[in-house]
Amino acid sequence: GAAAGAGGGGGALVAAAAEAEFLAGVGYFVSARLSAKLLQQLTDALAVASGALPLWCRLLMRACPHLFTPRARSLFFRATAFGTSRALHWVQEQQVAAVRTAYAEELAALERARLEAEVSNDPQALAEVVEQLSEIEDRVSRERLGALKSDIARVQRDELLPQAQRLMRLHARSCHQLEIQFEGESGFGTGVTQNFYSAAANALLTARGHAELPLWLADSTAGSTGGGGQAGGGGGDGPVDDGFINHGGALFPRPLPPCAPRAHVLAVCERFRFLGRLTAKACRDSFIVPLPLSLHFLHLSLRGGTLSYAALPAVGATGGVASGYASLAAALAAVDGRRLPPAEARRAYEEVGAAEFARSRLRMGVAMSFDAWVEAGGCTFSCPVTGAPLCTGGDARPLSVHNLQEYTHLLAQLWLADGVQRQATAFREGLEEVFPASALSPFSLGELQALLCGTMRIEWGEAELQRHIHPSGGYTKHSKVYQLLIDELQRMGNGERRAFLNFVTACPHLPPVGLSTLEIEVIPQQHGAFPTAQTCGNKLCLPDYDSPEALRTGLAEAFANADYGGLHEVGGLH
Length: 574
Fold this sequence. Notes:
The chain is of the alpha/beta class. It is 50% helix and 6% strand. The strands form three sheets. The chain has a four-stranded mixed β-sheet. Strands 1-2 form a two-stranded parallel ribbon. Strand 1 (150-155), helix 9 and strand 2 (177-182) form a beta-alpha-beta unit. The radius of gyration is 27 Å and the shape is globular.
């Protein structure tokens, strides 16, 4: 599969804008009746648990997934992708959720009574409320036939990556739920397990790890402790710090040149196989691995598609010069399309080479023609990131406007096909050790990214925040600091929202269903003037601030220290 050329040539256009335009049209084909019929079928516990859903469900979901609403597709995936035990568990949890919903008003009233009893220090009233809550929980638990078998694994934070790789290799084919605890820490539960997946994701983005085993088209010369900022224009591996690589917000594999040592190729492929296992295990247990995997990479690995020049790194990112070259190659292709006589075609080529290039096509601050650019850089037929020759004797063959189209094709062949196919295959193989990749076919690439990695763009409104952020321990929804927090969360930009989620839940991305799976609890801060968090229980300990400025300053201090392990309560994550 050669990479498609500038004209598309059958290459898949997987840019987010193109996909959004496509899905806007597909929306007209969604059938509310078919979706309702499918949801009705999924309420048949026996059919779901035994894998005996009507044949039309699977056939239409495979052939025409966009006939169904996103919710219907998501529920079908959860009910059918992971085997009998998971299907039975899913049906059971749906029934439990329905029963809990029936008691929602009663539970809310009891929760208010509990808070009033705590505030008034009335032990008798508190005991009565607790007893009534226990009775409701007993009624809910009667809907459960049993629980999934769970395996508990203990890992050390300072050896996280090698231990995570070994754990995924041993546990990938197990049907049991995986729960993680950290050595030397008392935290446990879903918050700690999600923190394991988040910490593993961060371990794959460290500048030091990138220097030892480069995985991504990224730059480690200016790593940041915040998880990586916008990638710079350079492509070399310079001094390494203890922070994170710089990337453009969409991770794509660094190409493996044909001359790469076999041991290096095997190590890189094993790392991508681990990432596939990790991502699939997290997805099956309703967690996410918060890596911003590129839509192009997901298309290549899980769809088996080919990539066009649109998948080259954006101008300004590591390796982004390739997009500038591709843009100029398209202008040269337009010259070819005019079918000029050889002498005129050569003059037209030379005019393109002499025209301004650096500022208009690479967005640099200086004006420079393409001819001056290649002369100043001594550019040859070599990969601008790895330095590997693109053809025999390529490192001694000068690049010019007359051979730029050939160079761009060879570079795209390496970066979008031959040099990344082994990583994409390894990722898919790792994922398929847990569940078949075909189960993901009903989802668009954007939905697939959200399902595996969480939402890149964090959206929430006041009503959603009020539903899923709960005051407790003396705070109520009428408390001033709670109202200040809700207002501040709405004001925050995407980066600050990521920092808030990372601080409170140990994961900077939202699950596909939003805040509803997090249920963050806000309680008074008993010690100190800054917020702290118990990430194992999604709890935010918030001082009783009396102004937006004080709250904003406290949260900013908490976010700044979170990356260094500070401002988390003992008993949670350290």
